Amino acid sequence: STLFPYTTLFRSASSGVYKPAAGSLEGTTIFITGANTGLGLESAKRLAAAGGSVVVSARTQAKAEQAAKEVGGKTIGIELDLADLRSVKSLPARLEAALGGTPTIDVLMNNAGVMAVPERVSTTDGFEKTVGINHLGHYALVAALMPSLLRAKAGCRVINVSSDAHRFADQKALEDALATKLDPPSYAFGGWGAYGVSKAANVLFTVELQRRFEEAGVRGSAVTLHPGVVQTDLARYITGGIGAADAHPTDVPPPTGVGAFLKENVLDKALLTVDRGANTQVYLAVAADTGGDRTKRGGLFFDDMKAVKPTEAAQDPALARSLWDLSEKLTGAKIVIQ
Asked: Which tens digits make up the pLDDT trace of 166-179?
């Protein structure tokens, strides 16, 4: 099929904010988790303004509906609590009722997340909260929405919002996480260890999802990204969707080596406003990296709208398969791709 020219897909504003061109997303449905605040809300506004039909999710129906009202356009709000697998698994029925028919989703943006929870808190299902929301909840969501994604006539795209913090978790840390079923016995460093594991899990999940798309001959792609260092209080930083009261601010220092990483890679870099911080995920939702083809360039990690290399551990195919198998076992959710 003929692809939109690259220039019609998005345009650059003088402020450095990238926006899809008006009308370029007509006929495209985008589902965004954690869309009632931060990067998720900003992404929803920009994609809706380009003509996309946007489904914004939040932990309560009231928050989701308020976000939909703020976004405008062809936008609906729907309740989704990623810390409760019952909410995730029942989503398709609620979505069908809200849309008045069998839904098709062209783009799934897994944006919601929590960071640096200072002490171990459990999700409804007993998972450590950071990994439970950032990875396991989204894994189960992909399972729930895969039938809708596979209906996308022009191909689907799954976008997993990760972070450069995936570099906190080396090969041994990831192997240990898998050995302890993603729930280490010691909740060290105020949650920074769990955050690093969760963000590495986002990358590993992307790698394995892309491999399975290709194995099944599915017209789709899975991509992941670092949104940048967004201008907000780091201790309360959230990638979107969880309210400030749930951010659990902490002054516990990050683990040895992480402090240096933060200074070199985070604190010494220019902080981004939320509108600029959303650039890369909007860019990928539009598939501007492929001229509009959502079936191409899967399995890649992006930063500042360019493909860059994540850590070797986060790309390890054996770790990716092990994480997939463990996630399926822990959540009881099976991603069927055919």
From this structure: 999 999 999 999 99
